[in-house]
Write a structure and sequence with these properties.
The chain is an alpha/beta fold. The protein is 29% helix and 22% strand. The protein has one domain: 7-stranded beta/alpha barrel, CATH 3.20.110.20. Strands 1, 2, 5, 6, 7, 8, 9, 10 and 11 form a nine-stranded parallel β-sheet that branches. Helix 1 packs parallel to helix 5 and helix 3 crosses helix 4. It is globular and about 45 Å long. 37% of the residues are buried.
Amino acid sequence: MKTLVLDYDDYHWQSPENCLDTVKEMISRVPEIKISLFTPSLYHGKPLEADWAWCEETRELIKAGRIVLAVHGTEHETSEYENIDEAEAREKLLTAEKMFMNADLPFVRAFKAPHWQIGEGTMKALRRLGYSHAYLHEDTKHLMELETPVRRVFYNWNLLDAAPPEDVDVIIGHGHTHDVCGNGIAQTMERVLQFVEKSSDIQFAFVHEVTGNVV
């Protein structure tokens, strides 16, 4: 049985990052699908709670067990989680969490730094705050050397590309909620769904359900 994780960055109510229509279409076609949305708490200076109708729609999909939100930075600024110590990282994470709470949006304790830029101070803060997973880029593989219970996960399927080989048992599919880097959710939807429909041994997992490190 293969495990498929689908994660998309930059989920927000603003356009073009608002991908609710595409998410709903994917769910209608594959009702058992699980979609993980890495969400900045403040994007272009706008908080999540500023569009309450969007929050309500998002909340319903979370309650239905079809999506989860995970933390994708506080202000989505380059390097905001890279060259800082544990204390500063902790404060930034708590600020992000408070914004999710203000919007009444449940979130899981999986983290991906904006633009993949993350440092040891942030990894330590994630551990202190009980985060289970950090999603990383190959440029930060040195963080595998840290002694921490935080699971470190690297994607192995850029959704722009063809699916991984048959012998890959845990597939981490990575894209964006909008058309950037060629792997936007709408642009890659047919490729993803065709892969799912052709596979007889797929089980879906959210980003916080991955067991162990995936390198």
